[in-house]
């Protein structure tokens, strides 16, 4: 059966060049970066080379890059490692921010959740209003992993600077895909496996002078911010992926934008389907829709039976049986969120894959609507 | 996470659609919980001659609807009302824990269809069925 992967927002395949770059670090170059002898020193040298390549992608100083195991770990470290009694986040953060915030509230901290408009956009003025003299951190996701809306982090960062509050952004979906200016950013999280690097590597960008308490204590790696033997193979692969992303960014963006346009045009030809997220301020690799009269998990499984991998924010697909908090925050009704479908494009996506997807989508939607008691359109 | 049997029923559901002039219709679920089932029955004497469903919901909801109609078809009303969650889950080769409630929903739809039939024909409704009807309505209205 034909296989079409359209869930690049969940994870990406590792670029073959990154795999090649990593290979020696599993065998000949297996040293521990903390060891004194040459095998260790060489590992340390390659680690620092990787740091440089990754820093270059966001024009940061390599000393401002700290390695973690994932963006989830980076986000946890930042939220829990900033000392302060009040924090401002958006209502559409990734689960690792939402859950960390809930945990902090249990520890006695206060968290303000800023609402979004129907396009998933945070109004920077709402953040300005939410900041009090106790506010230690503002954390706003850069590009939404569910609907693709991109927040104005330049403006939000400027407000935070003016108010003398630290600003963090979770850039898991934007890092390596669009240009990021860290001028007004104090802290940033990003991940390797979203940009054709291996799993098991993430970063914290931390501006010099920002004080962060570690989450993991031990041997003092990463300037004491993140103890644990450094995962050199994954980091080397991550660095290669960053280098490739930097070289290809424009070309990839152009191709993906073209495919996005075609995809959205074709999908919206189906009756009773709507695009979610901001019409312009958005990542072009994420197209999120909702379909009336059918449920998202059924749609995902039905497409899976045709070899297509996509995802949904439907309640039925979640462990908690709650619909996506992002779609609900954007004002969607439960029934609309139930019918959600997220399609995400990547570097390897082809026009033929989009055609195949659209064909199979039409079939699946028709079939499920035939079974549905809600469909008013059937005979 | 789903058994092959679930996927099979989901991919090719049995007895879906509507029955024109049914003897009873059972409708359960609500939008907030995300599953809505409509079950139609046609009787011949005391036996369920034909049964069809329409379901809005996840793969488990569609598969359980399909299996319940299979289990009930041809049975007497009395026997059909005895179908329980275990029968449905077993026929599907198991269901993930979080989806077991879907099997209950399909059974509820069947008992509601029978209730509807009794009500339409002025037949006597047992206390059990009345109680069940009230608890389903209460749950779905929430």
TrEMBL record, chain A:
Keywords: Iron, Iron-sulfur, Metal-binding, Pyridoxal phosphate, Transferase. It catalyses: (sulfur carrier)-H + L-cysteine = (sulfur carrier)-SH + L-alanine. Its cofactor is pyridoxal 5'-phosphate. The keyword Iron applies. Residues 4-357 form the Aminotransferase class V domain. It is an enzyme of class 2 (transferase). Its EC number is 2.8.1.7. InterPro entries: Aminotrans_V_dom, Aminotrans_V_PyrdxlP_BS, Cysteine_dSase, PyrdxlP-dep_Trfase, PyrdxlP-dep_Trfase_major, PyrdxlP-dep_Trfase_small. Transmembrane segments: none annotated. GO terms for molecular function: cysteine desulfurase activity; iron-sulfur cluster binding; metal ion binding. NCBIfam families: PRK02948.1. Belongs to the class-V pyridoxal-phosphate-dependent aminotransferase family. NifS/IscS subfamily. This is cysteine desulfurase. It comes from Candidatus Nealsonbacteria bacterium RIFOXYB1_FULL_40_15.
TrEMBL record, chain B:
This is Iron-sulfur cluster assembly scaffold protein. InterPro entries: NIF_FeS_clus_asmbl_NifU_N. The lineage of its organism: Bacteria, Candidatus Nealsoniibacteriota. Pfam families: NifU_N. GO terms for biological process: iron-sulfur cluster assembly. One of its GO terms (molecular function) is iron ion binding. Residues 1-121 form the NIF system FeS cluster assembly NifU N-terminal domain.
């Amino acid at each position: 059966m034909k296989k079409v992967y359209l869930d690049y927002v969940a994870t990406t395949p590792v670029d073959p060049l990154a795999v090649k770059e990593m290979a020696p670090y599993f065998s000949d170059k297996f040293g521990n970066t903390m060891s004194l002898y040459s095998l260790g020193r060489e590992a340390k040298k390659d680690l620092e080379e990787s740091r440089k390549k990754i820093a270059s992608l966001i024009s940061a100083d390599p000393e401002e890059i700290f390695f973690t195991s994932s963006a989830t770990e980076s986000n946890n470290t930042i939220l829990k490692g900033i000392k302060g009694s009040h924090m401002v986040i958006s209502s559409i953060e990734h689960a690792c921010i939402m859950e960390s915030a809930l945990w902090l509230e249990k520890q006695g901290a206060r968290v303000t959740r800023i609402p979004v408009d129907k396009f998933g956009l945070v109004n920077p003025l709402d953040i300005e209003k939410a900041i009090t003299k106790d506010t230690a951190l503002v954390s706003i996701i850069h590009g939404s992993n569910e609907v693709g809306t991109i927040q104005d982090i330049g403006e939000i960062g400027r407000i935070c600077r003016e108010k003398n509050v630290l600003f963090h952004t979770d850039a898991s979906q934007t890092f390596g895909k669009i240009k990021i200016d860290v001028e007004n950013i104090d802290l940033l999280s990003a991940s390797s496996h979203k940009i054709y690097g291996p799993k098991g590597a993430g970063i914290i960008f931390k501006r010099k002078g920002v004080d962060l308490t570690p989450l993991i204590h031990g041997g003092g790696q990463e300037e004491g911010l993140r103890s644990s033997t450094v995962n050199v193979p994954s980091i080397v692969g991550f660095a290669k992926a960053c280098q490739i992303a930097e070289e290809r960014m424009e070309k990839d963006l152009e191709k993906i934008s073209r495919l996005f346009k075609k995809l959205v045009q074709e999908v919206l030809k189906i009756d009773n389907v709507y695009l979610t997220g901001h019409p312009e301020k958005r990542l072009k690799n994420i197209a999120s829709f909702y379909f009336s009269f059918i449920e998202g998990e059924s749609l995902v499984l039905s497409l899976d039976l045709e070899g297509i991998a996509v995802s949904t924010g439907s309640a039925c697909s979640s462990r908690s049986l709650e619909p996506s908090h992002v779609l609900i925050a954007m004002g969607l009704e439960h029934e609309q969120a139930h019918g959600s479908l997220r399609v995400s494009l990547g570097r390897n996506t082809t026009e033929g894959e989009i055609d195949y997807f659209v064909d199979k989508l039409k079939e699946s939607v028709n079939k499920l609507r035939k079974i549905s008691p809600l469909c008013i359109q059937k005979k | 996470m789903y058994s092959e049997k679930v996927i099979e029923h989901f991919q090719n559901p049995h007895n879906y659609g509507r029955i024109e002039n049914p003897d009873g219709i059972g409708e359960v679920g609500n939008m907030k919980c995300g599953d809505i089932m409509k079950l139609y029955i046609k009787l011949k004497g005391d036996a369920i001659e034909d049964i069809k469903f329409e379901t809005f919901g996840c793969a488990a909801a569609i598969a359980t609807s399909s299996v319940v109609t299979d289990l009930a078809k041809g049975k007497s009303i009395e026997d059909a009302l005895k179908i329980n969650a275990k029968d449905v889950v077993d026929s599907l080769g198991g269901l993930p824990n979080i989806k077991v409630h879907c099997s209950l929903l399909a059974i509820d739809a069947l008992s509601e269809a029978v209730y509807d039939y009794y009500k339409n024909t002025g037949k006597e409704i047992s206390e059990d069925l009345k109680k069940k009807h009230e608890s389903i309505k209460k749950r779905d209205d929430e």
